[in-house]
Design a protein that fits this description.
- The protein is an alpha+beta fold.
- The chain is built from 6 helices and 8 strands, in the order ββαββααββαββαα.
- The strands form 2 sheets. The chain has a 6-stranded antiparallel β-sheet with strand order 1-7-8-4-3-5, sandwiched between helices. The protein has a two-stranded antiparallel sheet with strand order 2-6.
- Strand 3 and strand 4 form a beta hairpin.
- It is globular and about 55 Å long.
């Protein structure tokens, strides 16, 4: 994993009625570097799904999928019941993902159900968490009790910079 870029940075994207939004530049560059298009053109593919715990989305490049599966299999093996029964929910919670294309400006369409689940409507807050990107409805993020205050303030700041209401 040492040759992979890490997702760092944050930003707000305006979401239209069809769920189109642009990935902030720093995060988009990492996506493209981690999984470049075969033809060398701009844009690429991002996998978007629901977060395992929080009411937000996760996004990552297709090459990360093998790493994620390995992590989940390890976690599943470490959390088997005394009778050897697996905790099937470990993979179920992480399996919700859909590969979607993004263009050279980072524009993509968020899949409908995940966007609904995360309550994302007018704005989406993108936050790089090293191995993946979280995508939040800013108001939902700020109301989440078990999340770092500094990240909540990032979202508030980004919204204020755009002159947008929470």
């Amino acid at each position: 994993m040492s040759n992979r870029g890490w997702y760092q940075g944050d930003g707000i994207g305006l979401v239209d009625d069809k769920g189109r939004v642009s990935i902030p530049a720093a995060l988009r560059q990492t996506l493209a570097a981690n999984y470049p298009k075969a033809n060398g053109k701009d844009g690429g593919t991002v996998i978007v799904g629901t977060h395992q715990k929080h009411r937000c989305l996760v996004a990552y490049d297709p090459a990360y999928l093998d790493i994620l599966v390995a992590k989940l299999e390890k976690r599943e093996a470490e959390n088997t019941a005394d009778d050897g029964e697996l905790d099937y929910n470990i993979k179920r919670r992480a399996a919700a993902g859909e590969a979607v294309p993004f263009d050279g400006s980072g524009r993509f369409i968020m899949p409908a159900f995940p966007r609904h689940y995360a309550r994302i409507k007018g704005h989406a807050f993108f936050y790089g968490v090293l191995d993946m990107i979280e995508i939040w409805d800013p108001k939902t993020l700020i109301e989440t009790t078990d999340y770092p205050d500094v990240v909540k303030e990032m979202a508030e700041f980004q919204m204020a910079e755009r002159g947008a209401q929470l």
